[in-house]
Amino acid sequence: MPSTLRPLITLALVLQGAPAMADACLDEVRAFYAEHLDPFARRPHRTVTQVYNPDGTPQRIFDAVIESPMRTIAGVAAESHYTLAIDSGVWNGPTHDGPWTDAGAGLPEDRDAVMRLEHQQRTANLKDAACNGMVERDGRMLMNYAFSTQSDPDPDRGGYFYGATHSVFVDPETMEPQVWEMTAFVNPWSQTPGMDRHVVTFTYDDGIRLTAPE
Predict the structure, then answer these.
(1) pTM, two decimal places
(2) Which residues pair with 83 in a beta bridge?
(3) Which tens digit of pLDDT belongs to each residue from 173-212?
(4) Is 33 exposed, middle or buried (0-12, 13-18, 19+ CB in 10 A)?
(5) Which of 75, 76, 78, 115 is the most interior residue, by most CB within 10 Å?
């Protein structure tokens, strides 16, 4: 075989294998998303979300305490405003510990079903998958998956949908997300994707228990 042909044949073989590799990665990321990014399958945890402007300037910091998707506290410490949501009940308060005041309006009774459906839709709609293997993040070696996805338009909510691109850094032993970056946010009312960047850091705590105020 002429030596000049060997690089071309090697390149052709690589290109032939590229679609299969991409499909395998998409399947891997979709399975990871379906199981480990299911909000109803995650252990109780706390999150801190740093929001950055498109130019990298820090904006707000949100923090949350999550026993389950149906039992959460979320808010902004700098604004002394937190919301406690237990099932369909909602209360507001200045700190994680309240004191809590009834918000006067509850959440939809079927919001757990809506969340489950949206997770299924985002799993099915996942694309642009990248399996980046082990990378260093904040001094730790973590697995990294990148992808984009969005929910389907909901006719019962005026065609509402929501999506973004994601980069998730995962503990390779537990497969739990440790850091989750999101950007390129889309919804029905934005002409162009929102390029703010959200960086969510997770801390797991099986002892978290949230209850409704008496």
Answers:
(1) 0.88
(2) 74, 92
(3) 999 999 999 999 999 998 799 999 999 999 999 999 999 9
(4) buried
(5) 75
